[in-house]
TrEMBL record:
GO terms for biological process: 2-oxoglutarate metabolic process. Signal peptide: none annotated. This is Dihydrolipoyl dehydrogenase. Its main location: cytoplasm. NAD(+) binds at residues 188-195, 211, 278. It is found in: Cytoplasm. The active site is at 451 (proton acceptor). One of its GO terms (cellular component) is cytoplasm. One of its GO terms (molecular function) is dihydrolipoyl dehydrogenase (NADH) activity. PANTHER family: DIHYDROLIPOYL DEHYDROGENASE, DISULFIDE OXIDOREDUCTASE. InterPro entries: Class-I_Pyr_Nuc-Dis_Oxidored, FAD/NAD-bd_sf, FAD/NAD-binding_dom, FAD/NAD-linked_Rdtase_dimer_sf, Lipoamide_DH, Pyr_nuc-diS_OxRdtase, Pyr_nucl-diS_OxRdtase_dimer, Pyr_OxRdtase_I_AS. Belongs to the class-I pyridine nucleotide-disulfide oxidoreductase family. Residues 5-334 form the FAD/NAD(P)-binding domain.
Amino acid sequence: MSQHFDVVVIGAGPAGYVAAIRAAQLGLKTACIDNFIGKDGKPALGGTCLNVGCIPSKALLDSSKQFHNLVHGFKDHGISAQKPAIDVGTMVGRKDRIVKQFTGGIAQLFKANKVTAIAGFGQLQAGRKVIVTTPDGSTSEVTGTNIILAAGSVPIELPGMAFDGEYIVDNAGALDFQDTPKRLGVIGAGVIGLELGSVWKRLGADVTVLEAMDSFLGAADADIAKIARREFDKQGLAIKLGAKVSKAEVKKKAVEVTYTDKEGEQTLVVDRLLVAVGRRAATKGLLAEGTGVQLDERGRVVVDEHCYTGVEGVWAVGDCVRGPMLAHKGSEEGIAVAELIAGLPGHVNLDTIPWVIYTEPEIAWVGKTEKELKDAGIPYRVGTFPFAAIGRAVAMNETAGQVKMLAHAETDRILGVHMVGPVVSELIAECVVAMEFKGSSEDLARIVHAHPTLSEAVHEAALSVDKRAIHKGN
């Protein structure tokens, strides 16, 4: 006999577990099905983001930054240490403890909100029925008045370069190296490639990033990408653009990578190879025949602006639908859908979702790039301000980067803000708020910002739109 719920969520990543908690808060009897198994062999909530994505990568980025500063950066502060060393096993163990803390935290939140957690792979059947297959192969059935598909995404494998967990790895494998590889190859200069490449570069690896595109960080504003590239070059992160990889073979405990660039066919030999060419919706096996739910050409669940599939009572959120594959986007969609199910308003503005890359320096942006505005024929004005002229940044010895603000030439409404520099992952929030409230550069220019803070770069960039920045020439 099947259990019946008001809401059944398939997937316990940032989109799914948040949707389940919000639905339960609204008084709906809720279940959340997930098949992720942690390193200890037990079910673990939180999806890719918490287990092998956002959270563990930030733990390693912080550890590697501390070590890099000890070796290279603290001398300017008069701080010295004798023969600094890092125990990679201890660093990875710290990462694992943080992950376990948060997966356990979600379990506690489920318990507190009376969400029923079900371990196993959920497949939607016709009539809002879900068959759950557990790791041991047994099955059970649940039904829901509403179903929320939050299956997430998985790494894309390149043909002939299957992940082996040791030499050719995905993001999960690159988070679990037990020692620093002497030579690390990375295919893909996106968020994952740059972040994990930075981790192991700081710890002493010789890192080469192969990017098939001819432009660097094509999704970011060109000026910001240019500054970021310059800083990565200074750090010794070798980034090769227009490098199309054709094969990778494991030979004598190394990986031989063959790629083609403008100079012809090239060979790169590395000790480990991280394949980070993007992710695809994890919808394989998610839908049985006859559900009526449609997939697009990229395997994503087709939804409208309210994340509704068009099939009565069936919704989809997060990485398995259109829009950016970002944890915070998925979470907000999960909340919106739970509220819509409960008869409340629910909406996510895809135009004001912030992007962040947690390299050193950090990169963040929201809204349109300058190229997008030009291509659309939208008149705009630009304001910029460098962190090198910000007292707090100089005191921190982190002066690389700038803030760039784009505002409509006629209405002054903020159309996009792009940053590269220290802690811009936090600074971007102010700009998201301003854009959500239809704010202008004049609004940000007139808001008092504390001194000395990094946020003054946002203030001065807003002033610069009107050519009245105080601490730089206009």
